[in-house]
Write a structure and sequence with these properties.
The complex is a heterodimer of chains A (129) and B (250).
Chain A (H helix, E strand, L loop, with lengths): L4 E8 L5 H14 L4 H19 L9 E8 L3 E8 L10 H10 L2 E6 L5 E8 L6
Chain B lengths: L5 H17 L2 H10 L1 H10 L7 H18 L8 H20 L7 H21 L5 H8 L3 H12 L16 H8 L9 H11 L4 H11 L5 H8 L3 H20 L1
Classes of the chains: A alpha+beta (129), B mainly alpha (250).
Chain lengths: 129, 250
């Protein structure tokens, strides 16, 4: 495997398609030998992060959510951007708490052109072979 | 949907004012019936997503009833505008809750149930959570199949399939087992927002949420503590978070 592999996914910003976002995350994590438990955490995190973006805007019809997955040697990083300029992220304290239990680090921010985005990283507490 | 003429509008407006005062269910029926066309129209907008129209119309009608109940005619908002928002919210929530679960093929559902047992056995044998590759080997299926089954099994609706198999929502015993940990949850502000939402969860769901996100326990530690499978813990977590999200938005 190369040092860094990047996979990109663009989906309609709707909960219906988050399954794909989760599947890609779990597929890549499985490739890194993440355990079942770590993968379940990752999937919950992807859900939480993506929902936060999607729900930052009232009307999400015709809006896309762009995700990019960066696979490193022992960790996976995921970035998400909602293609909308009139959405504002407001992360609840509860959401912060959930994510801090699920991933190593995460943040939400407005990208330079005003689109709401997230970034997260999770590394593997490696399964001994 | 044809718009109402001015006279009909006025008539309906009077009904709304009357309903707000008296909460008479007969007036409510009149108002709901008068706007069923709007529910139908919105249900059709969501039609091309693989759900039968009748189901969607039913969901939309429930949204319409909510809108009639909550509408305040003294505000400067048209009922149709207000109701559109409520009904669309209800429809979106319907799709979100159902996800793809309804359409998960039987073989994935079966594999998911089988994996639950395999995860328990392997976790014990290995002394840690198994990897997907290990699960695939044991179940004699591909890794993709394992991942797909895990995804399908997590979905909201599916959970009813096997939730009765283990003493789910055994509230009293569990509350006693865990003590009064609710108070440790968040600071005052967070508590205020969250507690009405948390009240909607079963004691078991609430306890698991708390142990995982506030007590810092892993899913397998929680499983051991509560004497249920790790898969079940994972599913209950997913379900609780989904419930919390859908409530906090509407």
């Amino acid at each position: 495997m190369q040092d860094k592999d990047e996979i990109r996914l663009s989906i309609p910003a709707s909960a219906e398609f988050l399954r794909l976002a989760r599947l890609i995350a779990s597929g890549l994590a499985s490739r890194l030998n993440f355990t079942y438990e770590a993968i379940e955490d990752l999937r919950l995190a992807v859900d939480e992060l993506c929902y936060s973006l999607i729900s930052s805007q009232e009307d999400i019809s015709n809006t896309t959510l762009d995700l990019s997955y960066l696979v490193k040697d022992e960790s996976i990083e995921i970035k998400g951007i909602l293609n909308s300029n009139n959405a504002k992220i407001q992360q609840s304290q509860f959401s912060k708490q959930i994510l801090s239990a699920l991933v190593n680090s995460h943040e939400f921010k407005q990208s330079l052109d005003g689109k709401p985005s997230f970034w997260m990283a999770k590394s593997m507490p490696k399964a001994p072979n | 949907m044809p718009p109402f003429d001015a006279e009909r509008k006025k008539e309906l407006r009077n009904y709304f004012i009357e309903f707000q005062k008296q909460r008479d269910p007969r007036i409510r029926d009149i108002l709901v019936e008068a706007h069923l066309g709007l529910a139908d129209h919105l249900a059709r907008r969501f039609a091309n997503r693989g759900e039968p129209h009748d189901d969607l119309f039913q969901v939309a009608s429930l949204g319409l009833i909510k809108a009639v109940d909550r509408f305040d005619p003294t505000r400067e908002v048209e009922f149709s505008t207000y109701a559109t928002h409520t009904i669309a919210g209800e429809l979106k929530r319907h799709f979100r809750d159902k996800g793809w679960a309804v359409r998960a093929p039987r073989r994935l559902q079966e594999l998911y149930l089988r994996l639950g047992k395999i995860i328990a056995i392997l976790s014990q044998d290995l002394g840690r959570s198994p990897t997907i590759a290990e699960l695939a080997k044991e179940a004699e299926v591909s890794e993709e199949a394992v991942l797909e089954a895990l995804e399908a099994g997590q979905a909201y609706r599916f959970t009813s399939l096997d939730s009765t198999s283990s003493n789910d929502d055994n509230g009293i015993g569990l509350a006693a087992q865990l003590g009064e940990e609710d108070h440790e949850l968040l600071d005052a502000e967070g508590r205020a927002t969250l507690s009405p939402l948390l009240a909607e969860l079963s004691p078991r769901e609430r306890a698991i949420l708390q142990l995982r996100f506030f007590g810092g326990l892993t899913q397998s530690e929680i499983a051991t503590k509560l004497g249920i499978s790790q898969m079940h813990v994972s599913r209950l977590l997913t379900r609780s978070l989904t419930k919390l999200r859908s409530q906090s938005e509407i």
